[in-house]
Each structure stands twice: as structure tokens, then as C-alpha cells.
Design goal:
Helix content is 72%, strand content 3%. By secondary structure, it is mainly alpha-helical. It has a two-stranded antiparallel sheet with strand order 1-2.
Length: 246
């Protein structure tokens, strides 16, 4: 900050650097000892000895790691390995998008574009791996979408459930987590910006039905095309919301 003494800025930078180094050391300890989520970490005193740092330094590093869901501090019980979820990513992306007041529509479009690229690419693999049982479950979700659509009700949670089920056959735990993160950010930002829900729930249900139909026929190109149409509809809705707020 202007007017701040140079030695104060240098001291703060040095402290932040030390804190980051201790965080990395704690993470490396977790990796080296193969500790799983929920495992008890060494005590503060043990970490002080292992890392050669003060108690205050250990506490500050653990607080920072807790914010990242890498550790979980249970007061009175100890510190445990966290779930390392994508919650910090979701919160960071939501803030980043909402903070871009000068380019509101563009910031939201960027989030949607990343999800679109991921899903349009992954759907080709799903077409080769999805089982009949999984397709039956997807059709069950679509049936519930259609029921809600006929009643004129939006169904964001069914939409999320559909896309999570869609990629289950890939056996990749990160895929639904990552897609879910972008889905959550988009919904949060849409809600905060007053974006309208899809004006035609029936149309949305039909687009999901078309994805399942193509997958059932093992039509790779058709499945990807149906996914593209689905996302184009979301993009159009987001665009209309942007123009309406201008």
C-alpha cells in the first residue's frame, strides 16, 4: 500500500512465504505417510518438531489448509486429513465471476463454455461405455423431468442428477466432481444476477431425452449433437438474461 514502510512490506512478504512453505511441508507429510481422508494428523507439538517451526506458524498453516479442505481442525480432538473437495474452487470461481462487474455476461459465458467443452468431449466416450442399466436410470430421471415440465416446474436438481449419472460409466471420480463444480458456479451466479430459469422446462426435458435416445442407439455423433443443442439452449437463455438486464 502507498506510504507503507518498505520493511513492513518485506516482513509481510517473508511471513507469507514462510506460511506457504509450511503448508507445502504439511501436505508433503500427508502424502509421504499415505494418510487418507479422516486420518489423524500429528499433534501441533509433533509438527513443530518435525518441521522445525513455532506453534504459531503451525497453527497459521493449518488454518490456511483448512480453508482449502486439505485438513479439518476439530477443536478438542485434533487435526485430521480433509476431504480435499472442490469447494474452495467453487467458492473462488463464484467470487471471480461475480466480481467481474464490467463484463457480466462474458464471465458467465466462460463458465458455461468450459463445461460445454468438457461434456461434448466426454459424451463420445460415454456412448461406448454406458450400460443398458445406466441408460434405464437416465431415462428414469428424464421421466421425472417430463413430469415436472408438463407442470411447468423447473428442475435444476434433476438436471444435475442427470449429468452426474451420465458419466458414471467412465469410472472417473473426478469427472462428476469437476462438472458438478462448474454446474454449481453457474447456478450460483445465475441466481445472484437474476438470470431467468429456462422458460420451457418441457423443451429442456426433451433435449435430455434426445441425448439418452442417441446413446441407446450407440449413435456417437447423434449424442454429441444432442449435447451441443442442449448447451446452445443454455447459452441462449444466459444471453437473453444478459440483454434483459442491460
Amino acid at each position: 500500500m502507498p506510504g507503507q514502510p518498505r520493511n513492513s512490506r518485506t516482513s509481510r512478504t517473508s511471513e507469507e512465504s514462510r506460511n506457504s512453505r509450511i503448508q507445502r511441508q504439511v501436505m508433503q507429510l500427508i502424502i509421504d505417510r499415505r494418510l487418507q481422508a479422516g486420518a489423524l494428523l500429528p499433534t501441533e507439538a509433533e509438527l513443530m518438531d518435525d518441521l522445525g517451526v513455532s506453534r504459531n506458524s503451525v497453527r497459521e498453516a493449518l488454518k490456511a489448509l483448512q480453508a482449502l479442505d486439505i485438513v479439518e481442525i476439530r477443536h478438542g480432538y485434533g487435526t485430521y486429513v480433509g476431504q480435499a473437495s472442490l469447494t474452495p474452487l467453487i467458492d473462488g470461481l463464484t467470487f471471480r465471476t461475480l466480481a467481474r462487474h464490467d463484463h457480466d455476461a462474458g464471465a458467465l459465458a466462460e463458465i458455461l463454455q468450459v463445461r460445454e467443452v468438457l461434456e461434448e468431449g466426454l459424451i463420445r466416450r460415454v456412448a461406448a461405455t454406458v450400460t443398458e442399466a445406466e441408460l434405464d436410470r437416465l431415462e428414469g430421471v428424464v421421466a421425472r423431468m417430463e413430469t415436472a415440465g408438463r407442470a411447468g416446474r423447473a428442475f435444476p436438481e434433476l438436471d444435475r442428477e442427470f449429468h452426474e449419472l451420465l458419466y458414471a460409466s467412465l469410472g472417473n471420480d473426478l469427472v462428476p466432481q469437476l462438472l458438478g463444480a462448474f454446474w454449481t458456479v453457474f447456478r450460483r451466479v445465475s441466481g445472484a444476477r437474476g438470470r431467468p430459469d429456462d422458460p420451457s422446462p418441457e423443451l429442456t426435458a426433451r433435449r435430455h431425452h434426445e441425448i439418452v435416445t442417441a446413446l441407446r442407439a450407440r449413435d456417437v455423433e447423434g449424442a454429441q449433437r444432442a449435447m451441443t443443442v442442449h448447451f446452445r439452449g443454455i447459452a441462449a437463455r444466459a444471453g437473453r438474461g444478459s440483454r434483459a438486464s442491460d
